[in-house]
Amino acid sequence: MKTDHTPYEAGISTEAISRKYHIPVEQIIKLGSNENTYGISPKAADAARQAVGEAYLYPDNHALLQALSKHTGVDPSGLVLGVGSTEIIDMIARAFLNDTTSAVTSEFAFAMFGVMTRLAGAELAEAPAKDFGHDPETLLKATSEKTRVIWLANPNNPTGTFIPPAELKAFLDQVPRSIIVVLDEAYKEYLAPEDQTDTVAWLRDHPNLIVLRTFSKIYGMAGMRLGYGMMAPELAGMLNRVKQPLNINGVSLAAALAALDDHEFVKASYEHNLAGRHQLQTGFDQLGLKHLSAYGNFVTVHVPNGAAVNEKLLAKGIIVRSLTPYNLPHFLRVTVGKPEENARLLAELKQAL
Ligand SMILES: Cc1ncc(COP(=O)(O)O)c(C=O)c1O
């Protein structure tokens, strides 16, 4: 295993900025980690509070697996739960990659793909992006005999770009069955109805496909750390061999079960996101700033000097994500906030430019 890799840089916390700049926590706005600015589903929060009393018992994931099976149509034998979908990325890397193999991802893809690939000791081939998004053509070209995994996020983080389903399906049809395709759909629930496709239906014809989803985004449960993977039972069996048996705690399991049923919260979060994303895009246009096409709960915007603008915003108590670590030094990723948070970000950004 390699230990000389660059670790993933998690988003800065509100507390860290409060300590550094002596700004009261309640005056800080956090638009840096693509969390749901409207909080956790109230039904999930209630269920979590109730479940705390049972925390002396080891957790039982049966009820959530059954509910997810009903929600997705995937048999429980093809479902794997992870401490965030990032744990499933880790499991996939540990189960299928080693120092004799390689994985392929795209330039500007979600950083955890590279982190976990390198941790497993495997090589990572980065396919050139097209318009900042994944390019099926270069991804295919980047594969070799050593490739065991292709990592994709759709929509992608941090660029917000989206591969249309028909293009993605055509790509999948061309990938040899010996290569596992990981399709990370952390932001799927934010897609407009016309962009939605039943990607899970593709599992039937593609035993090499793994689809990842999470409770961290639209369900507002990033702090609960719970994601899930859908795949052929054979692949799930292989992941279960590298998984801790009781990885998800009972409080998160109970919260997720309730969140799945909270259609009202999901719908409201979707609508708030649509309006907030539009507010940010319009504001960036008015400031004369270019921004990338946005399909998730964030907008990636071009600024003259990303690091300097980011520092100025932090000093004002506004946390966004500088994309310098992604080799995009002129871009900031801004999570969609509440209307007043977006307005304050836009006003401070105007000053910072
Ligand atoms: C593409 C993508 N995948 C996975 C994750 C991580 O999700 P989780 O909180 O489920 O580990 C994120 C979080 O930002 C993401 O952007």
Structural features, described:
With 353 residues, this protein is α/β, with parallel strands linked by helices. The protein has helices spanning 14-21, 42-52, 62-72, 85-96, 111-119, 136-141, 165-174, 233-242, 250-260, 263-286, 306-315, 339-352, and strands spanning 29-30, 79-82, 102-106, 123-127, 147-153, 180-184, 209-214, 227-230, 298-302, 318-319, 321-322, 331-335. It has a seven-stranded mixed beta sheet with strand order 2-8-7-6-5-3-4, sandwiched between helices. Strand 11 (321-322) and strand 12 form a beta hairpin. The radius of gyration is 20 Å and the shape is globular. The model has no long low-confidence stretch (mean pLDDT 96). The chain binds pyridoxal-5'-phosphate. Residues 34, 84-86, 110, 153, 157, 184, 186, 214, 216, 222, 227 line the site of pyridoxal-5'-phosphate.
Comma- or semicolon-separated keywords:
alpha/beta, 15% strand, 12 helices, binds pyridoxal-5'-phosphate, 353 residues, 7-stranded mixed beta sheet
